[in-house]
Amino acid sequence: MGALLGFIVGLGAVVGGLVAVVARRGQRGSSERAEGMLIEQQARREVERVRSEVSALHAHSGITGTFGASRLTRR
What we know:
The chain has 75 residues and is mainly α. It has helices at residues 2-61, 69-72.
């Protein structure tokens, strides 16, 4: 009987710990998601800027094809 009581108390402690972890994650989740979205938005803008610069360089220099295509051709 004592082992069963110990098991139930231990199980209750584990469940209580899991509830605390889930509650803490729920509180900070919205600010972390917003920060992550801002970081992704900034990264997309940077990628678009680099793509437009590469396109402008290709147009100015007369290079045709996609970026790095000459390296993919077989010789």
